[in-house]
From TrEMBL:
<dbReference type="InterPro" id="IPR008996">
    <property type="entry name" value="IL1/FGF"/>
</dbReference>
<protein>
    <submittedName>
        <fullName>Uncharacterized protein</fullName>
    </submittedName>
</protein>
Length: 102
């Protein structure tokens, strides 16, 4: 874990288990001691919006069209300008940020 990085484990009240990614799929059958499956990095931007990224696979937690949780690889292209930083973010990521806004 790098300096300043926050990791979460997400607990599901219904299944009484942790959210985990296993073989490219996400489910709620995780055990808290299996850190490689259940650890998520939390990234927060200046606007208070956050992203959950699986610590090992680096895939992001997203919602699909039916608003079910899924994991995807999201490429964020960062372009530095003289005045400010601009981000080119895919549609799925923008939808996740809209739903999870504080």
């Amino acid at each position: 874990m790098s300096t300043g990085e926050t990791r979460w484990q997400l607990f599901n009240q219904c299944s009484k288990a942790m959210l985990q990614t296993y073989l490219g799929h996400i489910n709620t059958r995780g055990v808290s001691s299996r850190l490689c499956l259940t650890d998520f990095n939390v990234k927060v931007n200046r606007l208070g919006m956050f992203q959950l990224q699986h610590a090992q696979s680096r895939k992001y937690v997203c919602f699909n069209r039916r608003r079910r949780v899924t994991v995807r690889i999201i490429f964020v292209l960062r372009m530095a300008t003289s005045l400010s930083d601009c981000y080119n973010v895919p549609v799925e990521h923008a939808e996740l940020k809209r739903i999870l806004r504080f």
